[in-house]
Amino acid sequence: MSELQIEAKLQAMLFASGESVPVKRLAEVLELSETKTYSYLEALKQKYDDDPSCGIRLVQLEDSYQLSTKREYYECIRSLTEKKRKASLTNAGLEVLSVVAYNQPITRSSIEFIRGVNSDGALNNLIAAGLVEEVGRLDAPGRPILFGTGEEFLRCFNLSSIADLPDVELEYNFEDLNRDLVTGQQVEFEAKPEENSSFEIVVESDESHTPDAEE
Fold it and tell me: Would you state the pLDDT for residue 119?
């Protein structure tokens, strides 16, 4: 199978899927190693990025890839589809999203401990928008739900992985915090950003993913 054939098959599979596809699954279908499949995907990604006449791009979402339109063509796509959806979050929503993004997996009680206020409304809106999702259960009494960010979060913030988030220094072990709150132990928490570091979180609509989340 030639490189052009492999490239064509990757494009066809990703286009037909309409969603992100794990590299492992693509490799299985092509009967190639994951390393080799990664190299073809990255080459295809670069090809789209370098071609100004191409309106699509290849987006990496953790260990998966997805075809998407380029960001600069969002307005014409929105006009075509006539979808009017908000792409904004309240301050409470952004605060909860930041807590989850940097401390995942994290329980609802840990989120509220950090913020000092009830976070049900903001958290539920983030879940409904697909920015936050259930990622498991804590091995503790009552087995509370653990929350984390999903692919929609990566799309909205134009990230390939949560490892791409700006660095923030946290002075508490959040795995311990989850357990301590469940068992009723007293805990102390303090989070400080790294010296001279700052960042701003702004939700921008991706081409076909514009979550509507507000408290």
Answer: 86
Residue 160 pLDDT greater than 90, yes or no:
no
Instruction: Give the domain range for residue 163.
Output: 91-183
Confirm whether 190 is domain-assigned.
no
| Residue 176 shares a structural domain with residue 117 | yes
5-25 pLDDT, tens digit per residue, is 898 999 999 998 888 899 999
What is the per-residue pLDDT across 82-96, written as a single tens digit (0 to 9) for each? 654 554 678 888 889
State whether 170 and 102 are in the same domain. yes
Q: What is the DSSP string of the chain?
A: --HHHHHHHHHHHHHHH-S-EEHHHHHHHHT--HHHHHHHHHHHHHHHHH-TT--EEEEEETTEEEEEE-GGGHHHHHHHHT--------HHHHHHHHHHHHH-SEEHHHHHHHHSS--HHHHHHHHHHTSEEEEEE-SSTT-PEEEEE-HHHHHHTT-SSGGGSPP--B-S-HHHHHHHHHHT------B-PPTT----------SS-------
What CATH number has the domain bearing residue 167? 1.10.10.10
- Say if 42 falls within a structural domain: yes
